[in-house]
Amino acid sequence: MKMPYVIYMDFEAIIRKILGCEHERMQASYTEKTEWHEACRYSFMVVRSDGKVVCSKAYRGENVVGKFLSDILQEEEKIRESLATPKPIVMTWKDWENFKKATDCHICNKALIKDEFTDSLPVWNVEEAGEGEKWSYWDKATKNVFTWHRKRRNGVLKG
Description:
3-stranded antiparallel sheet; 4 helices; 22% strand
């Protein structure tokens, strides 16, 4: 499954010399820091899974890392809000017909209806629930439809 959003980002840095005192060589091998990277600019782009660029920002100035963290957290909030808002499924009549007729998963080609699946379907009404079943939005009629399809697929029922 595709990720709903991808963020591409880049930092630019200026390499600054470190001024300091000379160290005596006490060992045969050692590391001495001579330069450090100072972030001076960033840019990022938020791309939705359909390829649409949702946001693009760039900043150059003081406190680049702090500004980046602030901006990226704001984008995270926007992404979380958009993911929390359900979108209606847009399907043609033919898409719905194919969906209703599907017996195998279009990704893994395995059967959608299995004994373990139908046996685990819980029911909503506690009076209809059998021993150990949980409440859910599935009603007894829906469970019976799944069982009927399973039996038909396995050749127990004709038609």
